[in-house]
Amino acid sequence: MTTNATTSFQPVLDRIAEEIAELTDRGTPADYIPALAAGDPTDFGMAVAELDGTVYGVGDWRRPFSTQSVTKVFTLALALAGEGDALWAHVGREPSGDPFNSLVQLEYENGIPRNPFINAGALVVTDRLHRLTGDASGSLLGFLRAESGNPDLAFDTDVAASEAAHGDRNAALAHFMASYGNITGPVPDLLREYFRQCSLEASCADLALATGFLARHGLRADGSRLLTRSQAKQVNAVMLTCGTYDAAGDFAYRVGLPGKSGVGGAVVAVVPGRCTLCVWSPGLDDRGNSVAGVTALDRFTTITGLSVF
Amino acid sequence: MTTNATTSFQPVLDRIAEEIAELTDRGTPADYIPALAAGDPTDFGMAVAELDGTVYGVGDWRRPFSTQSVTKVFTLALALAGEGDALWAHVGREPSGDPFNSLVQLEYENGIPRNPFINAGALVVTDRLHRLTGDASGSLLGFLRAESGNPDLAFDTDVAASEAAHGDRNAALAHFMASYGNITGPVPDLLREYFRQCSLEASCADLALATGFLARHGLRADGSRLLTRSQAKQVNAVMLTCGTYDAAGDFAYRVGLPGKSGVGGAVVAVVPGRCTLCVWSPGLDDRGNSVAGVTALDRFTTITGLSVF
Amino acid sequence: MTTNATTSFQPVLDRIAEEIAELTDRGTPADYIPALAAGDPTDFGMAVAELDGTVYGVGDWRRPFSTQSVTKVFTLALALAGEGDALWAHVGREPSGDPFNSLVQLEYENGIPRNPFINAGALVVTDRLHRLTGDASGSLLGFLRAESGNPDLAFDTDVAASEAAHGDRNAALAHFMASYGNITGPVPDLLREYFRQCSLEASCADLALATGFLARHGLRADGSRLLTRSQAKQVNAVMLTCGTYDAAGDFAYRVGLPGKSGVGGAVVAVVPGRCTLCVWSPGLDDRGNSVAGVTALDRFTTITGLSVF
Amino acid sequence: MTTNATTSFQPVLDRIAEEIAELTDRGTPADYIPALAAGDPTDFGMAVAELDGTVYGVGDWRRPFSTQSVTKVFTLALALAGEGDALWAHVGREPSGDPFNSLVQLEYENGIPRNPFINAGALVVTDRLHRLTGDASGSLLGFLRAESGNPDLAFDTDVAASEAAHGDRNAALAHFMASYGNITGPVPDLLREYFRQCSLEASCADLALATGFLARHGLRADGSRLLTRSQAKQVNAVMLTCGTYDAAGDFAYRVGLPGKSGVGGAVVAVVPGRCTLCVWSPGLDDRGNSVAGVTALDRFTTITGLSVF
Q: For binding substrate, which residues are annotated in this chain's numbering (chains A, B, C, D) (predicted)?
């Protein structure tokens, strides 16, 4: 299904990799858990997947890493597919203007998180999906294995345990929303599901392929429909306005594509109707986005003109 | 230059106008100044301008109205053209997550407004443009007359006086930013310029044409360059993430185009590389955007598929 | 030890009780747990204890009720006695200007609660006392039995369980502060201790006597020293500026005494060097203070002139 | 009227002055206007006035300095005397928990400042007094001359002009409240009155005498009544809970008296029924209160036991 043959995107990726190799300031890995703190900012991988599943890559594009918040895209898509617009009664779709783990906004808006990509919103979405399926992290894993064509995708239990050990802030968010009635299940169960999802290991190739349904207007790799065309548009819109923590405006301005980043150093991006991308490099800027990753995407849209703007 | 001949967009506009005629809940006009409070929510006009200046329209598409915050797009473009990236030291480009005239964010971020489309940001941009040109509102008027091909465009001095009489909140914003050194000129002069800009009268046809440079990647109607391709992309990105007050996420989700609204009931939108739109209807929703206007744009992108997502 | 003999305070109490009987708007009992929601706003009791333990009372002054946040005074005193000024590294002593269970302030001040009487602050104080003694609620109970001379004082396990079942907001506060390293023990243990303390049942007579050390400049009922003179002054100062939720200024203005209220309807107050008071009536105002209770204290200071101002 | 004879308070003042002379860290003068920035932190003066007008002093106790926010006490008293409880519809009496010139609180509470001693509140009180008298600063000056017995008290027009030149933050506050209808007169007039009041020059002796009405339960120096006993208590309560910026709790805890500080380095304090104090030293701590001034008051209450707690 995947190939590295010399076709249209390969020269672009090669050129970007050369440019990124010159990059001197590559940021700092996340340090709140040991598994991430050990990341090497000089590592770099990038993959582009076409609508038919053809994948191009460069650097460490087949090497698994900790996906972290990138999985929030897939959890959102699965919950939206299962629950439809009723989901939006529990989580908003506006940018937050606050740090990703802020409680202030929640307090002013009665426990309804501003969007599905801040931690509070992702907790709510996980709670909804768990309620729908009885197994949120299992549903996520099954979906990602199917879309990437990689049956070896798995959670990293050490990372999940490490997240849980540093999970007081997320526990606070969950209990706080529960106090407003916006969490349905027991908080400890929810946190376990949430931290498992964050711990998923996958490669740039895996994530570029798995994101394909957003470029195919809702169709999965096997041609079946996960989301309506309108819902796929909705997820892309939320990614563009809220996908990169408190730097969504800057990302839209520089990259101009729907995207979602994670503190493991990955960023996925969507060119609707054309292709999907995943780039990975563990060094982060002060807003939690991969320095080399955002730079590579910026170069990609500049070179190819494939921005939505 | 303009025509109403039966070409591609006319049937779409006619269909949308029919649908909008059925709309029962059309919102409420802004009521903070008499000129706006007199607006009739059943009024409706819509225009589409192609890259070459061909314009299609329906309803009151040639009738002038108070453009209000829609002019912030043009002021931003002129300031960015004149000052370049140095502009971004004085105003951010992130969504605010707060109401359009909030002072809270300013206090936490030392007088730097989050983006050019909240009132504080527009005051800063006007101050920069006034500093560059010595005549911010004159520059704006000249640009809009040239792009729209309408030499009769003018400010409404009654509206400007009315805005000034209700201008304590904007005066507070300007003095507050001045206390941080982020306003260079005298506050009373700045306010006069600002309120003049808000008072511009123009029609859907005028505004659709005047927005054309954003669909032409920075080129003006006469083919000369106002913005670099990258700067045009930047303005579109800021419109998409910040152009509709505290409903930017919702607008991206429903319409999926860069857009900017005003409390006079107008909304402009850009389909990069293809066309620009302006719709007008005075009834607003509770976040200050035209109810019929957003609905019409939503229908337009759904019918034509011309969303960026 | 106690007496109801006809001495100086009895006529004042009798007069106040008569006036309170005329009070028509008596507020509404707290309704977040069933045990409190069942309260009757027409119930009323008041007691005054002189420095030597002489007690005067009127109404239901010997009837036990749920003391709730009134116990925060005693927990603070015990923690301050045990830890000294080092306590103030973990909790501030400034009024909060926010609701008693707000998370906003915590976020802006890095997990250090503004004072010991908002819920977050009381959780920290309980955590410190539990760390010092290994049994925070046991220490509290022992102290209160000794000072009141009432060996039957006890926690109400139903109320404690009910509090725990509605405890998500407090769990959020505790986890949030733990994320800043400002909680030393396991959060579930802390919550159990905290909810037990809230559930203490005591009467006006019990609480007036137990508060006596604050009027005796730090000396316990048996003459031994709990707090230094300076520490007793500190606790009184914190009560005056922070003891009645978001109405401390209003309480100082009307009553003019250090005081502490609880949502069970009790309020204790201190006339340094002279006497202590406890009043109880379950109807609360919209800021959580007993309507009849504050009115009775207001009348007491007006009639006797025993305000600190 | 005043005397320096050897009576009860003189030895205490002498002892305090000796201790203060040893103080090494004396803070930093306010630097936002030149007149204050030139202050010398080693300057120190202190005065105590008894109820009958007997004054004791030490150090620079007769030297005039810029009174700044200390005048807010007198403006409040005059407005309360003129308008009665209706004043409290325009300004609250709760501690703010925010910096003295914050706009955040105003926004959440619809333009009603939390108390009369934050800048927003003092602007409102000045507006009310100006409305009542037609000459707010003239009323203030007349009152202070009468109470101090010093006909030479005057405003410093250079300081007032300097304040106005750095007055954008206060202009923002005034316009912001005007946008909520909580300022009745033209903002420029209000600002002129406000800055004049801040510029008053007076000595420790002058201010200790002028504050006497608060220790005399509302009676002026000539025995006439300015405030009811209840109103005097109200002003004292507001001073205790709100008089020292964001350090009111700390001041209550250390000093235990109603007090009001100014960035010129003065602090006045009241021992109800006994005496009033004024201390001055220009070095401020990071919350804007005189370091030597608060230390001296702390020593005074510790040595004399004259705290309200």
A: 69, 119, 163, 170, 194, 245, 263
